[in-house]
Write a structure and sequence with these properties.
The complex is a heterotetramer, with two copies of chain A (about 350 residues) and two copies of chain B (about 375 residues).
Chain A: H1 4-21, H2 26-31, H3 40-48, H4 67-79, H5 86-95, H6 98-105, E1 111-114, E2 129-131, E3 134-143, E4 150-153, E5 158-163, E6 169-175, E7 181-191, E8 193-196, H7 200-231, E9 233-234, E10 237-238, H8 243-273, H9 277-305, H10 316-326, H11 333-343
Parallel strand pairs in A: 1-4
Antiparallel strand pairs in A: 2-3, 3-7, 4-5, 5-8, 6-7, 9-10
Helix pairs in contact in A: 1-4, 4-7, 5-7, 7-8, 7-9, 7-10, 8-9, 9-10, 9-11
Chain B: H1 16-30, H2 44-57, H3 75-88, H4 96-108, H5 111-123, E1 128-131, E2 147-151, E3 154-165, E4 172-178, E5 189-195, E6 201-206, E7 215-226, E8 230-231, H6 237-243, H7 247-252, H8 256-271, H9 278-306, H10 316-337, H11 355-365, H12 372-382
Parallel strand pairs in B: 1-4
Antiparallel strand pairs in B: 2-3, 3-7, 4-5, 5-8, 6-7
Helix pairs in contact in B: 1-3, 3-9, 4-5, 8-9, 8-10, 8-11, 9-10, 10-11, 10-12
Classes of the chains: A alpha+beta (about 350), B alpha+beta (about 375).
């Protein structure tokens, strides 16, 4: 059971999130397919609210909240389809220190982590090659890199912090379905500061936060869809009267209920016992569930909208496009199922 | 057995974790080992020893107040009790008296009825069964037609009930009967207690798909019942029965069936040497994740009870989720068995491998206690506010 | 190009296998290679060369009689034509004139209309689009409200059409319009031909989920159309349009989309080095089996056409089966791509790997041409005779 | 396209089948869980109609029909849930010769093949050990063995024919869910006659015939269910008016349509080109489809019946129980999917 004080900090953070995210998707739609694809002024507000510092202990300048409140925040971000790079920034916060951390937290110098060389994994890449304070490495699928002031080349035991405009940095940016972008980045003898840290716990937290983002996204999509079902008339009935559409909506609601339970339980366990194998497995379970559910729910929301759902003009498609991107980030269903199986072999539990 | 060690004045005073440990200890020390994880619902003959142990220990009725001989557990503690019983694979006894009738009597019964019936439920003297469904009143329960007509000091009952669980083991049946045919279907229904040895009652077992006789039809042909056997007010039976849905609703959504099916799947994997087969491991992991997800949503709803909140219609999500998972596990298990899945007797004579029976049992899960389809209808209106 | 080699007096006289070989040869020799297996519906600018090749060869209208400039194919030969075009991955041209309007004119048009319009369809002078759906008449098409009121010698049209495919490329639109508001919804609908350069018409492209402008809205604001542009009798448009569902219905159920998605899945498997991965191979084989099953049921329905039987409502099973498969292949493909599935541009710039676009395209497949839900409603009544 | 003459022989054989199978399931129900579980008198009728000889060329005393008419017959058998061992007997016919074949065909001496040592395969067991005219071998899942006069111990290149009551034959019979039975049989120095033959083509035909049996079974189950939907009233409506139940029934109908097309196409191909890899693959495809569809359709038919569907008293359960047995016979969905993949590697076809 979630303790009362955690529940109330979750409520508080939800309220504060709603202040940022606004009531409709007009802002989100405007930012799509542009560069950097998010609003730096909004990012400053976000930093002022302390979100990137949420998970940091107070002695590192943070807010000291648990993973559960972070999940609540990510959920609200997902409901609003927030394009600002909250989850990457929180990941960076966990690895940075000193002045770089301070500048990152106050929004002056946004650091985006570049942690993978491969698709479909939650394992960080090997350590980047660092010689004479210069780093050489390649990273792919770096989100919103075009909006970063600095990049953190994350490795399994040590990471390298480089300025985005440092020499030897080659960025190839690809647009993503949701209107954002990712980059493949080559670092070639790029001057850097070295940070020793194990990124795995923070990566697992990012996976859980992404699951929560997907949860909020599903909620937003279903809310919009249920409203449509109550309003659209065909064959002389509001279409929400048709049993088959009712059941599709109920199935979507169930996916959401289960995703929420899975995510909250995983976060609660992590907050209680830290990154134990069981808590790691719970995060994989939650991410696998949320990714699969989000794809199913947003697909079905399109279908429930009928023709209008297939237009880019209608907002319902924004949820599907965002799900296409976030479902795979920090591992999708099959990767997390495999990770779960490794963490909890068949014979281990009843 | 040292029952007294488990008799406390106030279980609710224990910290949750201590109470949980107590329940575990109780089960470990008292539950008959051969009755754990039963493949089918137990008949009274098999269940009696366990029922009497619960009775002697005062652990039979976790949901009844202490002054009626129950454990008097608050909702949170009731949950722990249920969770640990489920986890342990404790056998379900013929428990309609404790689970359904008891709370109804406690809420709506006369002092005389309480004094007479409650102790006899606890002692095992009266085993009760439930007479709600009828051949034309299944999903549409309010359509029931078994009628009771007052004739002097007696109700004369005519009609038929169906899907009565373990009727053959029971001494008494509590029925919803029609006492008024005018007005809306939901009105004019009363709650009547009938001894099964009354002349005019015929019980006919129904063999189900598991080839088991868990259910019966019960026929009433001019069955005469004392006027005082009505519980609560005449024509208020529907409302009373609906109001009582609480403690037992969460039972319907517990992970027990899926957990049992998954345990069989694991044993089958072992039996067939598939524990290192990547395809099996992938499917198994998927199911285990779903089961743990179900446990998570079950706990989430349980937490509401713990906080003293009333369960809304969304509790039905538990049953929908669990029964769908239960069916999918057994469907995969059956296919995994290939030709062995067609065998009638459990493989190697072991209930641990009896997947075909579990598969058949799973068919019922989406029908009884409200079909999946009817539950989704209700949820669409009650939770999504669809027209 | 040696078109004359493909001009026969009577294609129907050829044995089926010879005709099939002829179609293959025709495609191999004439189809522009860069237009094979297009990722999206082609706009006129891209499709024009291929349209003009078909036109010059007399191969544009397989379903029209020879005396109207068609190939005059019997149903069996039409099927072979379609099958081979599908198998080859031939590009679909803006073909509403040939496919829908032509047969309607041939059946219901005046001699004058036939003489004027049919040659211009064949020559590419008139490109047609279809104006059926409206914002409040989608699944419930009979609810359409765009109205045409007679004013002297002209119809005055007001209203709005939506989901008009390739409207921006077209010169003319054929519309269902309301000409009588009394009586049943299906009555009082007429079939009207409207030049798109008439004053009062506004075309607004709709960007779809593929971020493509295949569809448009068409607005009519006091658009004046000559009285003679009605096809058939006034108020008979609904019946005429329904009667014409034939040749093109089987198109909707062809295996093209799933085949194209499966080809992409194979390329992706190759790209990611998964051709020896047992999990991939298992999924791929499952999809390939389903595709071949679909080809089997498609052929079975096609055989009915070949035997000269009329296609009943069960032809909708083809669309249901194909679109469901199409969606599942793309859903798996998308998940297989992991993070790559979120990219907007095709992987490696190759259309052969453009699974995310195909996934989005597949969303439309269960909506357009009758949603899956509406089709199942119809089938329940028409095929299973349910109430 | 199926040639006209084949279509008419399919119609003829369907008519003749309906003469045997009767109109209801009373007979089927009576024979369940008894021994031998089928009616020897009916078996004689079946032999008189020439069914076990159907696939044999006329010069071997057969009828000389193709696999398509055989599939039509098996379909009618499935619709009626025929318990007589038609498909095993046809398999035996393909392998026997001489007097044994004659006695088998005229029904005097029913031979049941025992062809597998393992579950979940369509590959025959290795050759039985034969020394001095005596066979030693083990076979499992031998259908209706308790009703056989003789057993054919099938091996990959040679088979051994033994009398059911011959010395050294140990039979352990297990009941099956459908009311029939299978046996695990040990042959220990059992006197036998040796027959050289490759059973694989006949096994593939048995798989296709079983697919057709499942097709008929689905048809029977859905017909019964649709009739129930039109008759059962709840909430003041015949339940067939509920959209969700309509769609379940339509989905079942679609499974049947596709299964039929798959089966007929595979049989047609086999009749045209013989046991080519492509035709073998088509049979695997048809059996995988029919097995999976039959399980789904019969499960859904139970659900559509509601409570009454979960009783053994109602006939709808008979279809599910039969599907549980036949779906796995001669290979189920996963085995045939694997076989298909071997026969048609990924890169082979567009």
């Amino acid at each position: 059971m979630i303790p009362e004080d955690v529940l109330s900090s979750m409520e508080m953070i939800r309220d504060s999130a709603r202040g940022i995210t606004g009531q409709d998707l007009t802002r989100i739609r405007k930012l799509r397919y542009g560069s950097p694809g998010f609003d730096r002024a909004v990012w400053s507000e976000i930093c002022a609210l302390g979100w990137p510092a949420l998970r940091l202990p107070e002695d590192r300048g943070g807010v000291g909240l648990g993973l559960l409140p972070y999940a609540a925040l990510a959920e609200e971000a997902g409901r609003a389809l927030l394009p600002e790079p909250l989850i990457p920034a929180v990941l960076a916060s966990a690895l940075l220190d000193g002045a770089a951390l301070e500048a990152h937290l106050d929004g002056a110098r946004l650091v985006i982590p570049a942690w993978t060389e491969a698709r479909g994994t939650l394992e960080p890449a090997g350590d980047p090659a660092i010689r004479d304070g210069k780093v050489t490495a390649s990273r792919i699928h770096v989100p919103m890199a075009a909006g970063a002031d600095a990049l953190l080349v994350v490795g399994a035991t040590q990471s390298a912090l480089v300025a985005a405009d440092a020499p030897g940095v080659t960025v190839i940016t690809d647009e993503t379905q949701d209107g954002g972008h990712v980059a493949a980045i080559r670092f070639e003898d790029t001057p850097c500061a070295v940070i020793a840290a194990d990124p795995r716990p923070a990566l697992a937290e990012a996976a859980l936060a992404t699951a929560a983002y997907l949860l909020g996204l599903m909620e937003g999509a279903l809310d919009m869809t249920v409203a449509y079902l109550k309003q659209r008339v065909q064959f002389g009935k509001t279409i929400g009267q048709f049993q088959i559409l009712q059941h599709m909506a109920v199935d979507a609601r169930l996916e959401i209920e289960v995703s929420r339970a899975s995510i909250e339980q995983a976060a609660l366990q992590w907050d209680r016992e830290g990154p134990t194998p069981a808590a790691q497995a719970a995060i994989s379970r939650a991410k696998a569930r949320a990714s699969a559910s989000a794809m199913k729910v947003t697909r079905d929301c399109i279908q429930l909208h009928g023709g209008i759902g297939f237009t880019d003009e209608h907002d319902i498609g924004l949820y599907l496009r965002k799900a296409m991107v976030e479902a795979a980030r920090f591992g999708g269903p099959s990767q997390h199922r495999a990770r779960f199986a490794r963490l909890k072999p068949v014979m281990q539990e009843a | 057995m040292a029952h007294d060690a488990f008799k406390l004045d106030d279980y609710n005073a224990l910290p949750d974790e201590d109470f949980r440990a107590l329940v575990r200890r109780f089960l470990a020390q008292n539950h008959p080992p051969h009755l754990r994880h039963p493949a089918k619902r137990l008949h009274w003959d098999d269940a009696e020893p366990w029922y009497m142990i619960l009775s002697a220990a005062g652990w039979l009725a976790p949901n009844w107040p202490r002054d009626h001989g129950g454990m008097g557990l608050n909702p949170g503690k009731q949950l722990i009790y249920v969770e640990e019983f489920e986890k342990f694979g404790a056998a379900r006894t013929p428990d309609h008296g404790m689970m359904l009738l008891g709370p109804l009597l406690i809420n709506y019964g006369s002092e005389e009825q309480k004094a007479h019936f409650l102790p006899r439920i606890l002692s095992g003297e009266h085993i009760w069964c439930q007479g709600y469904s009828e051949p034309n009143a299944g999903s549409d329960l309010a359509n029931l037609r078994t009628e009771a007509v007052l004739d002097g000091d007696e109700w004369v009952v005519n009609g038929q009930k169906i899907w009565t669980t373990l009727a053959g083991d029971a001494d008494w049946i509590f029925c919803l009967v029609r006492t008024d045919k005018t007005g809306k279907k939901q009105e004019g229904i009363s709650f009547l207690l009938i001894p099964l040895d009354t002349p005019g009652i015929t019980i006919r077992p129904i063999i189900n798909l598991e080839l088991d006789d868990e259910f019966s039809e019960v026929f009433f042909d001019n069955v005469r019942v004392p006027k005082g056997n009505i519980v609560g007010e005449v024509n208020q039976g529907w409302t009373m029965a609906k109001n009582l849905l609480g403690f037992e609703r969460i039972f319907l959504g517990g992970p027990r069936q899926s957990a049992s099916a998954l345990a069989k799947l694991r044993r089958l994997g072992q039996h067939y040497g598939l524990l290192d087969d990547p395809a099996f491991v992938d499917r198994y992991a998927g199911f285990q994740m779903e089961l743990e997800d179900h446990q998570a949503i079950f706990s989430r709803v349980a937490d509401k009870l713990r906080r003293g909140e009333r369960l809304g219609p969304e509790v039905s999500f538990l049953k929908l989720n669990q029964t769908a998972l239960y069916q999918r596990i057994t469907e995969y298990g059956l296919e995994l068995m290939a030709e062995d899945g067609g065998l009638l007797a459990p493989l190697m004579g072991s209930n641990d491998l009896a997947m075909p029976t579990q598969f058949l049992n799973a068919r019922a899960a989406t029908i009884y206690g409200g079909t999946t389809q009817v539950q989704k209808n209700i949820l669409a209106k009650a939770v999504l506010d669809l027209p």
